[in-house]
Design a protein that fits this description.
homodimer, alpha+beta, 7-stranded antiparallel β-sheet, 5-stranded antiparallel β-sheet, 20% strand, globular
Chain lengths: 465, 465
């Protein structure tokens, strides 16, 4: 132990020398925010917190940590749900919060360049001010950072239209494990000059290198947007609806969120929203299209006549649109009747979503009849979210319950060739389930890449692999 | 030499044992098509040609070649322009031509699964038959294969709307250098389970592994398409036009091809097309939008009033549209007056295209006033094509001319932070210029990846790196 402390002290001294004492905090100086992300694990204080202000600072930190074999956990907005940024004992936390700011919006190239620690909301605002749209959006936009979005290949509400974060990235600057800065701040749509190494760092959750700067491709702002809530008989009908909306509106289909019967019932019975339709329906789809009200209404009318849509509400105003979104967002208010819950972020191939939801329901009914189980999510992207938990504040949900439910859900994922992580990443909490979605050959290849790029395993050790 | 021949013979014997004698050809049995790609180098016969029919066959070939250190060149449709598939002396050519066929179109997932050797045109036809559009299209569609498209991250005409091949790939099966088959035949838009290793193989030109099967995400077919030829004052005006069309038509803007003054003049004076407009203009843009004729006409009218557009022709029929496309395609008829030429495929950031074209013109006028120099290309994607060559059939263009012009063009690329390969790849012919677009740190990182995945350097050696 003493040896470890001495070695840690030496590392901290060298970090202070490189960055200045004010940029390296220890012990009680380290703010709470750097001791836990949103995964709900107990806070854990890192050995030190490094606050680099420049790419060179990041390089200096990694050079020292690489030389000394010091493990590093990289931190952005601390909004992760897989404990990727949650410090482990003895790690140096490297937070990019001071390496922030939008450097440029290039209106001709249609690109935005930002430092990794820039909050997503600031990126979005800068894009909008220049007349563009940032293709990345998620609930945590106010706190999450663009570097974290890239490192986790973040998803969110706009994936159907603009793709995951990966598809919005044109260029990156990355600091490798040994401190080497490697940069491809590319602004061009086409650039086939050797391996596109940037792809490897996107979604690798800080285990292969640290993203310091990002070039995003921007999009034109969509025109007038219509919001509708649509009732369908089942998942097949929802998929037929999706296919038709894509054909009718092409790139104008922006949102396609599914909410199953139990989810809508909870919104009505537990959160107090009004019944959206006079009858209950198996599945509601919240959709947004960039089109005129008239055309949207015409298309929905035709789909009702064809029997693909059972019932539909088209928002007549912004307030009306918010009223429809309130169903989708009702899940954020479950705290009113639950103190604990188990949430899931999985993918199922679109053709198997119906069968997977059936399997989840059977499991829930047979094994956990006392809990509330709801399914909702970005179904066009194959992405389902599941929330399982008590039905009232006094009902207990134990760690054992959680573990068993987790096992059950991931077994359903495996059965339907799905993914144990659609958009939240693997981090520490989903490592044991990675084999449900990846073959031994894939895991071996990932390990080969990890070893090649971080031979001393100092970058986010124990995450992903 | 004798040792080498004996060792080659042993490898061939083992390959025949593994695949069957009919699937391994040698000497005169090897067809001409496997001795050269479209780069116009002298044909070169490989030591043997292996024709695997299954992924297991590919695995067997690589296992043997890995054990024996036998270099392998991978071949698809042989349409490459960078000599990537052109065999080098002593290499075993592994052609995927027999590993062909569309395995499935999944209309619910909106995906298509194909074996690597499937011609792109067959992939497109299968997608269309199922009511979808394949996002990848290029001139070589009849001969090029989907595996080759993935291996080279092919570009083409639809990149503005659907992205490079990379953006259309959802899943891959790859055989690694040692014969290990690694598979992620993913059909889901969201799948954040560890590193997306598939990205590494896309665009790596067969130097890291051999793509055997591909899952593509398909797109809805665009509705009614309008074609227009638009004259603008200069590149800035073209970029303003691009911005406005993207805003007006969103995902409906499909094509945006630029043709500079000299290119249009050659189409008229040398190929015999009629003058498109009464006056000459600095730059013509051929554009296609998915919108009604009325709306397209309204938007172009407004842009003329604003002075962004100088003149415009809107196609009134399919024949009319072909007449407009004939300008863009006139370059394929340069053989009428040239027997040799030097073609380029470069990218320049959109904001620097005007300055780069000016530089190219100055260079052409000062140093090669006797040659015809034309610039055209997918300017929305930053991609310029340049053709330089004689103005009549008897005019010589020597290898020395070609080399000097190459040097001059790539110097302009370097000056404007462009890319020496937009969509054709590096292969063998552009290796020496890779440093114009990539830093030493990037090249070192690429080499690290190559060494990790192909430690014996048997896969397409001498290509890319």
């Amino acid at each position: 132990l003493t040896d470890k402390v001495i070695s840690e002290d030496r590392v901290v001294a060298r970090l202070k020398e490189a960055l200045g004492a004010g940029a390296v905090l220890t012990g009680a100086e380290i703010p709470e925010r750097n001791c836990a992300d949103e995964t709900r694990l107990s806070p854990s204080r890192p050995a030190a917190l490094a606050l680099p202000r420049t790419t060179d600072d990041v390089s200096a930190v990694l050079r020292i940590c690489h030389e000394t074999g010091q493990p590093v956990v990289t931190q952005g907005g601390m909004t992760g749900l897989a404990a990727g940024a949650h410090p482990l004992d003895g790690e140096v936390a490297l937070s990019l919060e001071k390496l922030a700011g939008v450097e440029e919006v290039d209106p001709i190239a249609g690109t935005l360049t930002a430092r990794a620690g820039t909050p997503l909301a600031a990126v979005q605002a800068a894009a909008e001010e220049a007349g563009f749209l940032c293709g990345i959006d998620l609930g945590a936009r106010g706190s999450c950072t663009i570097g974290g979005n890239v490192a986790t290949n973040a998803g969110g509400h706009q994936v159907l239209r603009y793709g995951m974060t990966r598809k919005n990235v044109l260029g990156l600057e990355v600091v490798q494990a040994d401190g080497t800065v490697v940069s491809s701040m590319n602004k061009m749509l086409k650039n086939n000059t050797g391996y596109d190494w940037t792809q490897l760092f996107i979604g690798s959750e800080g285990t292969l290198g640290i993203v310091t700067r990002v070039v995003l491709g921007l999009h034109p702002k969509p025109g007038h947007v219509e919001t509708a809530l649509v009732a369908v008989r089942d998942v097949s009908a929802a998929m037929a609806l999706l296919n038709r909306l894509e054909t009718e509106f092409g790139g104008g289909l922006l949102v396609f969120e599914g909410m199953w019967r139990e989810f809508v019932a909870a919104a009505v019975e537990r959160i107090g929203l009004s019944m959206p339709f006079t009858e209950e329906h198996e599945l509601l789809v919240l959709t947004e299209v960039s089109a005129s009200a008239e055309r949207t209404s015409d298309v929905l009318g035709a789909l009702m006549e064809e029997g693909i849509v059972v019932d539909a509400l088209l928002a007549r105003s912004g307030t009306d649109s918010q009223r429809l979104w309130a169903y989708r967002e009702s899940v954020y208010d479950y705290g009113r009747f639950q103190t604990t819950f188990q949430g899931f972020d999985i993918s199922i191939p679109r053709g198997s979503i119906g069968a997977a939801v059936d399997d989840l329901r059977i499991m829930a009914r047979e094994r956990w009849p006392d809990f509330l189980h709801v399914v909702f999510g970005h179904i066009a992207d194959s992405n389902l979210h599941i929330m399982t938990g008590p039905t009232h504040l006094d009902q207990p949900m134990t760690a054992a319950d959680k573990a068993l439910i987790e096992e059950g859900v991931y077994e359903v994922v495996r059965r339907h060739a799905g993914s144990v992580s659609a958009e939240h990443g693997i981090g520490r909490t989903k490592r044991r389930w990675l084999g449900h979605s990846r073959s031994p050959e894939e895991l071996a290849l990932m390990r080969t890449l990890k070893t090649a790029l971080d031979p001393k395993n100092i970058l986010n050790p124990g995450r992903v692999l």
